[in-house]
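ok, trying the design again with the full structure, not the truncated one.
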């Protein structure tokens, strides 16, 4: 492992996308594909290694503070594959000894023995896609798991020695009651996770759920019910010592997901794999940074990598305006919000205070401590508020 550290102090996150799942969930719009019993692991991992190598000049000697195996279902991987990919990253960049290395897990794809091996090869944080401890909800979400599967998996995570782990929950299913959602949260807390994500079900274009809704075959709770669920989650979790550091994420102090914080703070990240996205804050034609993404289809991705070492499908330079919008789009999701002086300094702009005063008097934002934060009410209208807050800087 390299001992020299880049002079660039900005943390670099590496995201490794595994687009394969046992089956495709009807609500999911991520770039994922059911394996139908055929997971071309060795060929895909070889393509990932070659793509990482293609970015040698970009990441050479930079300090990598986080690695995130996302998907899809990365827990389908053999521990040896994870080890090979970690070694590839650390052979080029400086992998911090304190790096957060996360891996997403489906309860049906890993047991205690496999989890022990993941830990041995460097994974130190697990994110378990439970979604619910209610069989009714699991069936609704198209999850081929049972509450017992979820409980067994979480027990295995702890038995394997992981003390830093996340539980994913989803709320907003058809006919869901507050009691049902509250039971999900309290059951999750019984496994003592350091982090919990509670996502509201959203109907994304192109999903099976979107088709059902268009045909009026899918009935979901109205917004007032969903707001109630959001308040329920926050009330219970904050009482139990978790803080709502991001719209949908709660953590014990010091156990926030460091990789996701890189996204929300618009720092640098390199994404490899089919459909993966990357962002480098410096460079680009105007100096505001650059974004690019890979082709989505895994077979085409592997073919492109084999032919030329890269699989970029689209790339664009950020402008001052788009960079400013990104800063608010991501930063206002955080409970800490955005520091006003940082915005003024980086973008050489001034603040029209009156515009923010209106939003604050209406209870949508707070501007205490030199920061702009969304209130609980404001989080319901995040997209519209981001547009208005951006407009207050010129």
């Amino acid at each position: 492992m390299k001992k020299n550290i880049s002079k660039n102090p900005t943390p670099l996150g590496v995201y490794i996308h595994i687009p394969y799942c046992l089956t495709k969930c009807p609500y999911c719009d991520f770039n994922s594909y059911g394996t139908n019993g055929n997971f071309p692991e060795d060929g895909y991992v070889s393509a990932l290694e070659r793509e990482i190598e293609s970015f040698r000049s970009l990441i050479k000697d930079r300090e990598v503070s986080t690695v995130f195996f996302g998907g899809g279902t990365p827990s389908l991987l053999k521990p040896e594959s994870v080890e090979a990919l970690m070694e590839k990253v650390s052979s080029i960049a400086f992998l911090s000894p304190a790096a957060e290395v996360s891996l997403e897990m489906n309860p049906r794809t890993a047991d205690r023995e496999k989890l022990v091996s993941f830990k041995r090869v460097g994974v130190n944080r697990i994110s378990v896609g439970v979604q619910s401890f209610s069989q009714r909800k699991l069936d609704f979400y198209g999850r081929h798991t049972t509450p017992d599967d979820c409980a067994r998996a979480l027990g295995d995570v702890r038995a394997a020695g992981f003390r830093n782990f996340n539980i994913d929950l989803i709320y907003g299913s058809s006919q869901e009651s507050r009691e049902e959602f509250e039971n999900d949260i309290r059951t999750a807390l019984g496994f003592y996770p350091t982090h919990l994500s509670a996502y509201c079900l959203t109907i994304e274009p192109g999903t099976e759920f979107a088709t059902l809704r268009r045909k009026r075959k899918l009935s979901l709770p109205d917004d007032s019910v969903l707001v109630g669920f959001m308040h329920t989650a926050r009330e219970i979790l904050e009482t139990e010592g978790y803080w709502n550091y991001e719209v949908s994420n709660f953590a014990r102090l010091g156990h926030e997901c460091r990789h996701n914080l890189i996204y929300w703070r618009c720092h640098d990240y390199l994404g490899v794999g089919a459909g993966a996205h990357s962002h480098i804050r410096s460079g680009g034609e105007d100096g505001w940074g650059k974004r690019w993404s890979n082709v989505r289809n895994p077979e085409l991705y592997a073919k492109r990598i084999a032919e030329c070492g890269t699989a970029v499908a689209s790339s664009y330079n950020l402008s001052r305006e788009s960079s400013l919008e990104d800063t608010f789009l991501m930063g206002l999701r955080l409970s800490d919000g955005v520091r006003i002086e940082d915005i003024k300094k980086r973008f050489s702009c001034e603040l029209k205070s009156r515009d923010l005063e209106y939003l604050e008097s209406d209870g949508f934002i707070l501007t205490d401590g030199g920061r702009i934060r969304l209130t609980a009410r404001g989080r319901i209208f995040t997209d519209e508020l981001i547009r208005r807050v951006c407009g207050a800087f010129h």
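Keeping the full-length input from now on. Residues 14 and 67 are 5 Å apart (CA to CA).
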